[in-house]
Amino acid sequence: MMTANEIRKNFLEFFKMKGHTIVASDSLVPKDDPTVLFTTAGMQQFKRQFLGQIDNYTRAATCQKCLRTDDLDQVGRTAFHHTFFEMLGNFSFGDYFKKEAITWGWEFLTQKLNIPVERLWASVYKEDREAEEIWLKKVKIPSEKLVRLGDKSNFWPSEAKEKGPNGPCGSCSEIFYDYGVNPNCKSAKCDPSCDCGRFSEVWNLVFTQFNRKDGGVLEPLPNKNIDTGMGLERLVAVVQGKKSNYATDLFMPILDAIEKEIEVNGVHLDQRDKLVIADHIRAIVFGIADGVIPSNGERGYVIKKLIVETTDLVLNYRIITGPSIYRLVPYVISVMNEQYPELVSEINRISSIIKKAEEAYIKVRTEILPLLERDIDRIKRSADSKQEQIKKIGLKCFIAHDTFGVTESTILSALNATGILGYEQEDIWKTYREEFREQQERSRATSKMTGDVFTDVYLGPNLPKTKFLGYEHFQSAGTILKMFKNNKKVESVDEGEEVKIILDQTPFYAESGGQIGDTGTISKDGATIRVNDTQKIGGVFIHAGTVIQGTFRLNDVVQAQIDAERRLSIMRNHTATHLLQAALREVLGAHVQQQGSLVAEDRLRFDFTHHQAISKDDILQIESLINTHIMSCDSVDRKEMPLSEAKASGALAFFAEKYGETVRVVSIDGYSQEFCGGTHLNSTGQVGLFKIISESAIAQGIRRVEAATGKFALELIKTQEKQLEKIAQTIKAPLKEVAERVDHQTKRLRELEKEMEHLRFEVIKNFTDDIIQNAPTVKEVKIITSTFKEVDAMMLRKVSDLIKQKTKSAVVALGSAFQGSAFILVAVTDDLVQKGLKANELIKLITPTINGTGGGRPQLAQAGSKEVAKLDDAINQAKQLIMQNLQCTNYKPQTNSNSQ
């Protein structure tokens, strides 16, 4: 039986023999492409070529890592839906077209993999006579095994002719494997268009030959392209004779590991849950390996969600109470390391990140689930209408999910535990889904992730890469090759118009590798464009700006001038970023790895792996080390070298980055050596000054340092000095004595606050007898209520303790407004607790009156809210609720009760 590794290898070797360049898989995080969260298709890394920018090859083949979450609810339910998968693909950029794509596909499947011809079917787009002819006359497939399908299934993008988007598009032809007649199929004519499970789509051949324009106009592309995609998991299932992808050697070792590592104490997981875990752990491992850290934002949120959902599946069986999913990491890597050997060195890092994310979620689940159940129960017992209760519970459930990451299965447990079943539960889920959809819309509105791989302007064919001169020059001449207004090609632009302009060469740095794009001017006699940003598609630099005066036309020769002072500030921050990484590794340890960065004009930001906050002493040491390197005026050397030589030299690389055969290495006097395409100073001395602004956590195991350099660092220090001088003037102390004097006055202030608190308590203490005396009695139980001003929760507790000491049987409800917040405290004497009257149950009845949250023990409970104006009404209602509660209980008063 051919293994998955052999199938993958055979595919790449086959197309290498057909003249294709074998291109390594791109990262799951697309480089220089902010339009999508993850790499979702093999063609994505060839966006530039498909937009007409041809490099040194016109044929390529890949095995591409992909991650999609569109069909997350189908994972484990079907035999072939996955979040992470590998896509085999062969591509032509204006080279071969339909005949070669179809005949080579057929040749590979039938001759290289020996799949029986009689098992294969094909489909074509209903209007594609050319593809139909090739299948019938070249391949000689039986006509009954060739089906003609419509715009939804056999045009790419799906239904693009009618619905868009604009951009490259074309018909498709698919190859299917026939598993044999399904006796349960109810279709009169079962063919690949049927969803009975008989057919598995193996290969999709996309013939990109049109550029769609407004109104559905299809303009023929000057260079026709081929984009094919064949899911490795499905192909392996076909070759290995399995009807499920999960039954192949890509998944079976992971499923076996689940039995070994997770199915303990004789408890067996549901089969679907096992498949979900096996699927998700692959996506989690590869996502983290490519630099995505579990967090609450975009890519990080996806990986965190997968970890949480997988952890939750295991916790629901109650066979393991701690982290467990991380133990599957070595098994995943053992399956995949032949194709991705770089994973082996990442086992410990990936496992640690997953384990910490699991621990964080388990803590949330342990703490939040009881609170959610309490809130649901409180709402159920409120005076609201049933419709209003359902709406509030649905909102609470969504907040638990959105704010704390509580999974839907855990929410379901909370609903079941509180007795909400049937149609009421269905209505609650409707509210939950509505909130979820609204949140998704809000996220989409603020995100650059359009999900459309061809969102950018169509650059046109044969546009050369921009020659970048900005390493050595701040200005240069250039020729206008293309101009776009509203993302449409134009011949000229006039004063006041927004423009995107492409030059043959430029000193402007395009945003990349964390460094922001340059600004400046593009000018000629009597005409000027103010450039506000520089981006790039592939190797083509796009200058975005506004025509300040004059007119510009295609082929004009212009002067491109960057803002020199701004660039120098950016260069200071970029060189300082390298110094920072070197210092972090020296002070904290070699485990420090870059997770992301921002190099701007006024600051730098550096994200890195580290398990705890950096101490103040370490921050001072890091700053001192960097400033020592700056004062040493060490040279900053830049050198291009082969990738293999750069790796052998020990230069640090951002592990999720994909590098070409030649890389640029920036070295600083032997203590810093990194792959980097950014702009740098010639000497560390040009940085001037380095000052850390802040240090914080941004995710589990990920820290962030922000810092300033040069004049911005100096301005920061001057601002701090002014603040220090102002403090010195206020406390009337010399600068050198400020710290000591502030410390002394702080201690004195604490002493005065304690004295004030004592005096306040003494004043309140004098009134407690009156409060007790005037309290109503029900069944010889005192109901003692009162409100106070500017008394915190701790003081309320002391007052309640004093009242309980002075009464034999009492229920106490005290309220206070303190610094803009409202507090309510309920206390119950022990004799009443023993008879079933509990403070934590009473507080549930009271908190709705102030729209607050709270909880506690049977003897003592408290709640808080921001609605101070409702406090008096709340305490009055509390009195009534307590009286009603006492009247309804079976409490029998003691015959000799004596309230003081």
Description:
The protein is α+β, with helices and mostly antiparallel strands. The chain has five domains: 4-242, 2-Layer Sandwich (BirA Bifunctional Protein, domain 2); 252-446, no CATH class; 467-562, Beta Barrel (Elongation Factor Tu (Ef-tu), domain 3); 567-718, Threonyl-trna Synthetase, Chain A, domain 2 (Threonyl-tRNA Synthetase, Chain A, domain 2, 2-Layer Sandwich); 770-888, Diaminopimelate Epimerase, Chain A, domain 1. The protein is built from 24 helices and 33 strands. Strands 1, 2, 3, 4, 5, 6, 7, 8 and 9 form a nine-stranded mixed sheet that branches. Strand 30 (810-818) and strand 31 form a beta hairpin. Helix 9 (271-289) crosses helix 12 and helix 12 packs antiparallel against helix 13. The radius of gyration is 34 Å and the shape is globular. The termini are far apart. Residues 449-456 and 892-900 have low confidence and may be disordered.
List the helices and strands and how they pair.
Blueprint (H helix, E strand, L loop, with lengths): L3 H14 L3 E2 L24 H4 L8 E9 L16 E10 L4 H15 L7 E6 L3 H11 L6 E4 L1 H4 E2 L3 H4 L3 E12 L20 E15 L3 E15 H8 L12 H10 L9 H19 L8 H18 L13 H8 L10 H34 L5 H19 L3 H10 L4 H25 L20 E2 L6 E11 L2 E2 L2 E3 L3 E6 L1 E2 L13 E5 L2 E11 L2 E10 L1 E3 L3 E6 L1 H25 L5 E6 L4 E6 L6 H16 L4 E7 H6 L13 E7 L3 E4 L14 E10 L2 E8 H22 L6 H36 L3 E2 L2 E9 L3 H14 L3 E9 L2 E8 L1 H5 L4 H8 L6 E4 L3 E6 L5 H18 L12
Parallel strand pairs: 1-2, 4-5, 10-15, 29-30
Antiparallel strand pairs: 2-3, 3-9, 4-7, 6-7, 7-8, 8-9, 11-12, 11-14, 11-20, 13-19, 14-18, 16-17, 16-20, 17-18, 21-22, 22-27, 23-24, 24-25, 26-27, 28-29, 30-31, 31-33, 32-33
Helix pairs in contact: 3-4, 9-10, 9-12, 10-12, 12-13, 12-14, 13-15, 16-17, 20-21
